[in-house]
């Protein structure tokens, strides 16, 4: 059902953005890069985190890693990654298909500046074999994301 919520969200907010469903899995950065013919850094991975009582999504370049000091300075605490069941409960998307589109309830979305290295990025689209291609700026605009610098 998650793929359908992403399709419905994009139909309403960005009807020109096509959901690409592949035969091959794109559940990891490496698999997604292979499936879509891009370099791993161009995959826009979405991480579901909790800081204190706030749950958020961070979308970052596929080869980026959270930088603890930058993150703590920006958000005032240490991030805790949610487990797979929590991620599904909050986003409706399975791990490997998590994206900032089609969420059951609003969440703060932050795009890391690592995405700006590319004209086009490839985030997942609610399933482990679905994605979209769009510019980082367009993705941030569609989901009302704030730009942050929290990765290395």
Write the layout of secondary structure elements.
Elements: H1 2-13, E1 20-21, H2 29-36, E2 43-51, E3 54-61, H3 68-75, E4 80-81, H4 84-91, E5 109-112, E6 122-123, E7 130-131, H5 136-142, E8 146-148
Parallel strand pairs: 2-6, 3-5, 5-8
Antiparallel strand pairs: 1-7, 2-3, 2-4
Could you characterize the architecture of this molecule?
This protein is an alpha/beta fold and 152 residues long. It is 28% helix and 21% strand. It has 5 helices and 8 strands; from the N terminus they run αβαββαβαβββαβ. The strands form 2 sheets. Strands 2, 3, 4, 5, 6 and 8 form a 6-stranded mixed sheet that branches. Strands 1-7 form a two-stranded antiparallel ribbon. The N and C termini lie far apart (34 Å).
Low-pLDDT stretches: none
Helix tally equals 5
Helical content class? 25-40%
Broad shape? globular
| Major sheet size, sense and barrel closure | 6 strands, mixed
Q: How large is the radius of gyration?
A: 14 Å
Name the beta content range. Answer: 15-25%
H/E element order: HEHEEHEHEEEHE
Brief write-up:
The chain has 152 residues and is α/β, with parallel strands linked by helices. It is 28% helix and 21% strand.
Features:
alpha/beta, two-stranded antiparallel ribbon, 6-stranded mixed β-sheet
């Amino acid at each position: 059902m998650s793929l359908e919520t992403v399709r419905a969200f994009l139909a309403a907010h960005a009807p020109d953005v096509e959901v690409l469903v592949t035969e091959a899995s794109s559940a990891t950065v490496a698999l997604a890069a292979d499936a879509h013919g891009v370099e791993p850094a161009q995959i826009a991975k979405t991480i579901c985190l909790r800081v204190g009582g706030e749950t958020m999504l961070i979308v970052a370049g596929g080869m980026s890693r959270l930088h603890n000091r930058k993150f703590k300075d920006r958000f005032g605490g240490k991030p805790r990654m949610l487990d797979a069941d929590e991620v599904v409960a909050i986003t409706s998307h399975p791990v490997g298909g998590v994206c900032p589109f089609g969420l059951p309830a609003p969440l703060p979305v932050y795009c890391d500046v690592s995405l700006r290295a590319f004209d086009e990025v490839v985030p997942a689209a609610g399933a482990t074999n679905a994605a979209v291609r769009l510019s980082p700026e367009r993705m941030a605009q569609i989901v009302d994301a704030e730009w942050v610098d929290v990765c290395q």
